[in-house]
Design goal:
Its cofactor is Zn(2+). A hairpin with a 5-residue loop joins strand 7 and strand 8. The protein is α/β, with parallel strands linked by helices.
Length: about 375
């Protein structure tokens, strides 16, 4: 079941829609040409190719080392190249600026861009210098475009710097940073290892999201929600393991799924990426369809625009094609995302009432009729 309104949005119409992006990794979205130019400028010789098309194809293609391997671990291996060329303030600022430009061109009006400062210290930058470079780059790239770009600071879950990064996030609050995150391979690295960081953020009245339920199952989600009190769940795909669907299509929710839905915990879903990492077998079988029908607080995101060869427009267009969604569905996902953003309430409300709802109303009134 979907909530369509009799019109099928085209990709170009979706591009013009005022969209909201909550889960996008800075080091997962550089332009291939930029990666090559930065590698040349800073003497990095490890790229698989210095041809723009070939390098882009390597990141996006089904080769052994590429991102589309069906394995989260292999997917993450590709980041060694993008991170390697993002080790100076100029490089970080450039990638952030181009990120904002690309999102604005894709019709995104609000975005939370996440990255792990601890991965960018190889050339001697301090953590504060790293954050400053990214915040400045996003500000310049978003200037005059209508995009409101903010930053989430990520700690790597297999390392021991999460409290330090949490303190960094609070230090930069109100200067472009709106929250905290942990990321990396889930198996063997439960979120409870970083409980002190989450408690620090809570005591400082901050916000945080946790990568959980992507490559690991319900225990990861349960810990993130019940032990760590996550404001949002990064991916959360495996919540479907707590939902039973009978042959007649009736869904019965288990206690954790009920809790997540009842308390409106936002799910930052990234359909294409989830297929590429093996979290879902295909878009058609992705849990987003069921979770949308069951009215979970689902949002649609890109995760890594380079590695998964996506934009927010293409993600929505894929969902339209796969599930038959119309403007009502895309608007629902978008308002879910804006409600779940880490902006102050009045700013969220302004964007919903003054930008998102009027933008969707205008597009729905003039879109191509469904055939």
């Amino acid at each position: 079941m979907t909530t369509t309104d009799g019109r099928r949005p085209t990709a170009e119409e979706i591009r013009r829609a005022p969209k909201v992006l909550l889960h996008d990794h800075l080091d997962g979205g550089p332009r291939p040409a930029t990666v090559i130019e930065l590698a040349d400028a800073y003497g990095y010789t490890g790229l698989p190719s210095t041809d723009v098309d070939k390098l882009g194809g390597w990141f996006r293609g089904p080769s052994r080392a590429s991102s589309h391997s069906g394995s989260l671990e292999r997917y993450l291996e590709t980041f060694r190249h993008t991170v390697a060329v993002m080790q100076t303030a100029d490089a970080l600022s450039r990638v952030a600026r181009e990120c904002a430009e690309d999102l604005a061109a894709d019709g995104v009006v609000y975005a939370e861009i996440r990255f792990a400062p601890e991965l960018h210290i190889e050339r001697g930058l301090s953590l504060d210098e790293i954050v400053e470079a990214v915040v400045d780059g996003l500000r310049v790239g978003a200037g005059g475009t209508g995009l409101h770009a903010r930053v989430l600071l990520t700690a790597m879950r297999h390392q021991a710097r999460s409290l330090e990064i949490a303190e960094l996030a609070i230090r930069w609050r109100d200067r472009g940073v709106v929250g905290f995150d942990i990321a990396g391979a889930e198996a063997g690295n439960p979120p409870t290892r970083h409980l002190d960081a989450f408690q620090y953020i809570q005591r400082a009245n901050g916000h945080y999201t946790i990568h959980a339920g992507e490559a690991f199952g319900l225990p990861s989600i349960w810990e993130a929600v019940q032990w760590c009190n996550a404001d949002r769940l990064g991916h959360g795909v495996r919540i479907v393991d707590d939902i039973a669907v009978d042959p007649d299509g009736k869904a019965t929710l288990g206690p954790l799924a009920n809790y997540v839905r009842d308390t409106r915990v936002p799910l930052e879903m990234c359909p294409s990426s989830n297929v590429h990492t093996g979290a879902a077998a295909s878009i058609a079988t992705h849990p987003i369809g069921l979770l949308r029908d069951l009215s979970f607080r689902v949002t649609v995101n890109t995760d890594n625009r380079l590695m998964s060869d996506v934009s927010l427009t293409s993600e929505f267009a894929t969902l339209v094609e796969t599930f038959g969604y119309g403007w009502a569905d895309i608007r629902w996902f978008t308002i879910n995302a804006m409600k779940s953003a880490f902006l102050p309430f009045d700013q969220r409300l302004d964007l919903i009432n003054k930008v998102i709802k009027p933008g969707f109303d205008a597009l729905a009134a003039n879109s191509t009729p469904r055939t």
